[in-house]
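Let's sit down with a protein and look at its sequence and fold side by side. Go ahead whenever you are ready, and we will take it from there.
>
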Amino acid sequence: MADDKTSSDVTPEEQALADEWAAALDESGDANQDDIDAMLAENEKSPRMAMEEFNAPTVQSGDSFETGGDTPNLDVILDIPVTISMEVGNTDITIRNLLQLNQGSVVELDRLAGEPLDVKVNGTLIAHGEVVVVNEKFGIRLTDVISPSERIKKLR
């Protein structure tokens, strides 16, 4: 083989990949070290792509987002679905009390009447709002939106 590597030249990542291939080839009955070495050499020849960073600044122009230079295109993530939920309040109760609940039971929450609801996206608080009725359906009017920097601070 043209590319002779010693065992000290092999990174742990490459060794793990070689071990996975060896196990797969053992299962198929066609395993030999030459096949594994050829696959590793092929993997090294292909250039590794750098990960894009999505926190790069974008410029909004018209209806679409454009990126300047080497910045990534955020259109890739704009169509990812997320779950938005509104939380009226919560409380802690024992399983015994939970099992005793039936129609007409009242559960006391940790919020006062008239206090704003929490608006969460995938479980992360992003805003506060109040309940409104729009065309005979419930909706929420946002009264306070939490800044992205504050949301990041809460994640840490």
